[in-house]
Amino acid sequence: MPITREDITEWIKASADVLAKNRDYLTQLDAAIGDADHGANMDRGFRAVLSKLPEVSDKDIGTIFKTVGMTLLSTVGGAGGPLYGTFFLQAGMKTAGKMELTLEDWTGALEAARNGVVSRGKAEPGDKTMVDALTPAVEALKQAVAEGLPLDSALQNSTEAARQGMEATIPLVARKGRASYLGERSAGHQDPGATSSYLLLSAASAAWSDQ
Q: At 4, is the secondary structure helix, strand, or coil?
């Protein structure tokens, strides 16, 4: 079954909900190695996104994603705004004009989103950033497509890969962003950006698991 425009909207709503529920958790993670504002920033950004959704609910998926991206760019402080803004803008460009997505379409959109984050933040896997969750998630989707897996299995595999990537940031020494200023002291802490990325992908899997 395809991922419909309505499914995309439900994912965005679910993402806003999960980020609100994990606001304090993300803040605690960011307090250890950042500015202690990631949870508040992401919650504020997605609350703003929710207010914009009614305006684009009848548009194509690309327009919905681009609206999310522009809203996050204008409302999320710190590094999260530019990075997540780019994430959704790139996904929007990849899905322009589409009213529904196949697994291949979603894989391409997530890969474009990840590549946009890499380009914007100049981060690579192992730098202790959101890229550490996004990259294995993309690779898991690609493998699922190659193996002809159904959408729900592909999403579960992708989410699990993101979770493992997120947890793998704990021992890493940060090489990008505010956390990199701590040097070796950044080791032993889970990256908040990788965590919020995992939460978004987990929300997608939950929202679309019955497709």
A: strand
